[in-house]
């Protein structure tokens, strides 16, 4: 049972949680893998990990390596953190990144999207200046925060090797400082 302290909070993945145990073990190896449906007529990759394919309901799957790069599909900017460990890091962003792998599939509304916090290239929570640079359309790559043996969390940072939009879309109140 992987367990560790992250920002003053205890994180635990229970031994009974087979899918998440495997998912976080891959993350601990800094190697991003997701479940792919084993049915050749489906073969869709899914997130979050689960016991059955959400499209065809088959239970058989394989863990496959996935290129953890993509584009911000949506985000939330937190200004008033409820969790004490996050208060000193506000404002911070939680991103939903549509991966380049399987982008727009099976539909534009059900593409492969992975959530994570915005961090700098070293894996530290992004400061206010980086937060202001990121919005819908920003190009991201995954980095991992080690928590404990067998447990790491996936986060997102700007992909310095990708072309970035001149002005990614942001909520008007964030752009205008309202």
Q: Catalogue the unreliable spans.
A: none
The backbone outline, from C-alpha atoms, is globular
**Tally of alpha and pi helices:** 4
Radius of gyration: 17 Å
**Please, what is the oligomeric state?**
single chain
Q: Would you tell me the structural class of the helices and strands?
A: alpha+beta
The strands making up the biggest β-sheet line up spatially as 8-7-6-9-10
The count of strands amounts to 10
Strand content: 25-35%
Roughly what percent helix? 10-25%
Number of domains: 1
Average pLDDT confidence is 93
Q: Characterize the largest beta sheet: strand count, sense, and whether it forms a barrel.
A: 5 strands, antiparallel
Gap between N and C termini, in Å? 45 Å
- Please provide the ordered H/E string of secondary-structure elements: EEHEEEEHEEHEEH
What does this structure look like?
The protein has a 5-stranded antiparallel sheet, covered by helices on one side. The protein has 4 helices and 10 strands. Strand 9 and strand 10 form a beta hairpin. With 178 residues, the protein is of the alpha+beta class. It has one domain.
Short description:
This protein has helices at residues 18-28, 84-87, 128-133, 172-175, and strands at residues 3-6, 9-12, 33-37, 45-46, 61-65, 69-78, 92-99, 113-117, 139-148, 151-158. By secondary structure, it is an alpha+beta fold.
